[in-house]
Amino acid sequence: MHTSALAGEEILYRPAPEWVEKASLPSNPSARSGNLQVFDQQLRLEEGTLWRYLDTAVRVGTPQELTELGTLTATWLPDKGDLIVHEVTILRGGETIDVLAQGRRLDVLRRETSLEQRVLDGEFTATMPVPGLQVGDVLRVRYTTSLSDQALGREVQSLNHLFREPDFRAGFARIQASWPATAKVGFAATRGVELPKLEESGGYRWLELRLPLMKAEEMPRDAPPRYHLPAILQIGTFEDWGEVSRVMEPYYRVDGTIAPGSELAARASAVRGAHSGALAQAVAALELVQEEIGYLANGLDGGNYLPQSPTDTWQLRYGDCKAKTLLLLSLLDQLGIEAEPVLVSSVGGDRLPELLPMAAAFDHVLVRARIDGADYWLDGTSAGANVRVAGNVPPFGYALPLRASGAELEQIRQVLPRVPDLQVEIDFDQTAGIDIPVLYKARLELVGPAAAMFNAGFANISDEQMIEAGSDIVHPILGMSQVLSVDPIEGSDDSELTVVVEGLMTSLTKWEGGRGEQTFDLPGSKIAFAPDRARRQWRDIPVQLGHPTAGVVTFRHHLPGDGFVLTGATEIDQTLAGMHLVRSARLEQDTLTINERIIHLGGELPVERIAAEKQRAASLSRNQLVLTAPAGARRRWHYAGATDRSALTRVERAYQEQIDREPDEVEHYLNRARFRRGTYDLAGALADYTAAVEMQSSADLLQARSMVFAELRQRDKSRDDLQKAWELDPNPGRAIALAYAMADTGDIEGARALIEQQDGDQQVRHSLELVLAEFDSWEGRAAAGLERIDKILAERADDPQILNAKCWHMAAWQVALEEAESVCTRAVEAAPFPAPVLDSRALAFLRAGDYGRALADANAALAAEPGQHHSLLLRGLIRRASGDKEGEKDIREAIARIPAEIPVYARYGFDLD
């Protein structure tokens, strides 16, 4: 066996160690093995050194693989061991070409692959372009690396990934490990991997595992991380976690690390003088380490486990987690604060109890300070040190304290009350109307690392980027919205930040007929605890509840008047599936205030509690808060014909701010145009659509503007826009709109010709026939129009839409009125949504002089759909016909909302001017 364990930067070229058993090439590798014919790893643990032998034989199958495999590489840590190359050969048919015998050697590169992550790993890379390699060749490379870690002394450790089907294929693959029979060596594999028995031969114990392993059993996504561990073979000489603790402890001793009279000593003294109380001083020391020492992981000269001295760290102004931890420990020692270093795993910390004791199980170190009887976990590589959140525990699961006497793994628990990292207050201005776009002002208070991250991000960004950042912040809370302004306000330092975001969003009220309800996207309303443990093999798996977090939200909704009704769970104080929810909601006149505080306790839920917690979660999710609007709540059509639009001033200003910020953005004009049209500012809507058309003339924009022209009773301009839209994008729907405009401006023959030229599926053809039926009636041939509708009904006898069209045609054009009631009643009974059909039947009753039933149907239609303004107009006509003076009021209000219908109803014989 090669016995040199001295580190070296030169590559050695020697035969393989005597303990290596060279694998034979498969005589007839199957297609299933792919191009990898041999993948052989052999490990030897002896005399404080880990030897790793690797043998690969790969067939070059394609030109692309020739490029990929044409340069071989090998890596090693020169401060901890050697790279010893044994073989580089090309197998071509029955010929073996020895590349090393030709005098070829690998070149040494110093390549830092992780500099972007501020990591110097100290790893060297050796490379060689393989001369003469061809498609069809087999390239075989064998080499050994040695590793003796300065920090671990005589201890050795090894973590090895075990490949699984179907992702790994090879003709021959194994991992073999050996160590002296007299050595105390532990070995284990992660769950789901069964290891063979040890063999003993020649004074060594041998462990061999053939690869690949079978495909892993699927695990539920919410299983704790330890259930998702990849297959790993662990081998090490540490006796227990206590020994790991003892071995690593000396490197974090603080005696003499800060010299009296040094700058560091002065800084510690300044912290003591500026802050009273141990916690404030500890946090100030942490802030010093976080903010004045940059991060750089230096793995050179044994630095993988050995921290640089506090003096070096202070002079260099950079260091990794080890260096920052030792510096912080030294400062806390100067301040007389009890503290110790602790090792943690930043990924899947709950896995540690299932791993073999070794230093390699950890990838991070931080400080645990004991202050006033409580533990504080201080991370020098984090940011945003702040007294308010210093008691919040990190999401690492377990920690190993480093002590001269040794220590065992300890679970990191949230003992102190969890302080919210984020508090949100949002005021929603709905005073203009319950279906008017909502103005909001969100105030978000961040403390700790999140505040530091956002403060750094906000420091050098443009106004446009600031708006985007604000959108990203509020989107998880509000969903889609239009952010108008973002105002970041830094607190006493970068660990505190208040962000004020103002914006505009669509109405929060959802309507079903005449009933308007608002639900609330609160953290407590997102509770969904439904873990799947139906599979037999999953029934003993607990549920991962995530990391500890806390948050507070307060929503204030300023409503358009009183009369609203709040139902649901207004008061909640319960713990559910590791989450403590406290809610308080109150409705006082025209203001609704909701406050929720949620603390996620983290950890996991035992199997025996899953069923009960699922039931509780389901019960809570069914008891949501609901705000119901009163029947007379102010809505957008209350502004139709109104001279006082002052309630809309702030919303108008919001749209103007967007336009001023991005005057070339078409969508901003369209947003305001839709708002103005929806609130009956038709002149304003026309101006915005015109501005949009001038910037981007599309068929959709022209058709949208044509509708505003029609509502303004500028029929020629409406027709001209529709003509242009049709020319840009002809389709049956646009043809129908254009045909009506043509007929409305006197060209009914051209309109009829346009419709007769169109075609489509059955539904399109029926729509075209209904238009022609209307034109028949315009020309005094209502009976002919009715015949067209009857032909459609012959194909679709019970279609409620066609029945309603017939009912309306009969009533509007007063044709076959004696049959209208039965047809209309059939339509009402068949319709899934009765409001439009009730409106049609009301007109039929009006024509028949049955004012009582006509009024009843009109009222029923309005109750089901208050926004059906034709029904309001019809109710006014019914009232006027019956001598009710309130009819004129209904007519005036309806005409203000649907002015374009005046000529339509004139054709039906109703005088509305």
From TrEMBL:
This is DUF3857 domain-containing protein. The lineage of its organism: Bacteria, Pseudomonadati, Pseudomonadota, Alphaproteobacteria, Sphingomonadales. Residues 52-206 form the DUF3857 domain. InterPro entries: DUF3857, Papain-like_cys_pep_sf, TPR-like_helical_dom_sf, TPR_rpt, Ycf3. PANTHER family: TETRATRICOPEPTIDE REPEAT PROTEIN 6, UDP-N-ACETYLGLUCOSAMINE--PEPTIDE N-ACETYLGLUCOSAMINYLTRANSFERASE SPINDLY-RELATED. The keyword Repeat applies. It holds the Pfam family DUF3857. Keywords: Repeat, TPR repeat. The keyword Repeat applies. Gene3D superfamilies: 2.60.40.3140, 3.10.620.30, Tetratricopeptide repeat domain. It comes from Croceibacterium soli.
